[in-house]
Amino acid sequence: MNDRWIDLHTHSTASDGSLTPLALVRYAAEKKLRAMALTDHDCVDGLDEAVAEGERLGIEVIPAVELSADHPDGTMHILGFFVDRRHEGFCGRLRRLQEARRERNPKIIQALQALGLEITYEEVIAASGGGQVGRPHFAKVLVQKGYVSSMQEAFERYLKKGAPGYVEKFRFGPPEAITAIHEAGGVAVLAHPFTLYKDHSVPLAPLLETLSQAGLDGMEVIYSTYSEEQARYYREQAERYHLLPSGGSDFHGAHKQGIDLGIGRGRLQVPFELLEPLRNRARTYPPSL
Ligand code: AMP
Ligand code: ZN
Ligand code: FE
Ligand code: FE
After folding, report:
1. Closest residue (by CA) to atom 21 of ligand 1?
2. 161-192 per-position pLDDT tens digit
3. Torsion of the alpha carbons at 200, 203, 206 and 208, rounded to the nearest 10
4. Distance 193 CA to ligand 3 centre (A)
5. What residues contact residue 56 under an 8 Å CB cut-off, 6+ apart?
6. Residue 34 and residue 49: Cα distance in Å, rounded?
7. Full-model pTM
8. 42, 104, 155, 252: which to mutate for ligand 1, most atoms within 8 A of CB?
9. Residue 3's pLDDT band (boundaries 50, 70, 90)?
């Protein structure tokens, strides 16, 4: 057993990954990871299965989630580690987000059909493997039908913010998302900060100041696609705002090409040492009744 490396950002078929929670944990064990967090979008449905399989195989599976939060410019995702997946208030909030997804998805279909693309919601549901339906599933169908040659092209041409098939959905504000995670006993960690602003020269400081005041605990300072310069910048910013460092691959299986579990594009290394401070911080947020 490799006791050094972990992966704190992964997706399963419960949201928009291509491996079932079971297969994902087995793959992590094969990769000899010491621990992994299952961080499906707005959903904890894969956690029971993943945690149980982790116990069986001797790899720690951290119960987690990735929430989309409202942000005027790019995309803000907040990871919650060590959440109580049975917490009633938290599950209620997740249901609200899942409802927003179900309202949005048919509108994406209408927008794509209005552009002349032949695509149905049934096809997208079939591509989703039974969990939450997300944009990567629309992308997968567009690739299968030959409208685009890659998932990336599907996002660029049709699905990303500002593209003609993009449809807004309800999200929590960042403070609400952070509080929801704390109430469920988890630590709140800002994921992949480079997606926050389309203009990457925007300084993060004012936003990090605000998020820290709202209770943000950590930031993803190790990530599959970071350049050395980005990694250095995020690490500095995390230190400056006393944010705990976190790291992960954002593995989606076949739904995100070129990113492998644990190793990202091949050189990712997330040390086990990052986990204990996150766990200890989570202990300071006992689940609310
Ligand atoms: P959704 O939550 O359904 O809006 O889908 C969000 C997911 O789509 C993200 O977590 C990514 O996996 C994927 N995604 C978003 N934007 C892009 C993009 N520009 N290129 C590729 N994948 C993307
Ligand atoms: Zn995703
Ligand atoms: Fe994300
Ligand atoms: Fe993710």
Report:
1. 152
2. 999 999 999 999 999 999 999 999 999 999 99
3. 70
4. 9
5. none
6. 18
7. 0.96
8. 155
9. confident
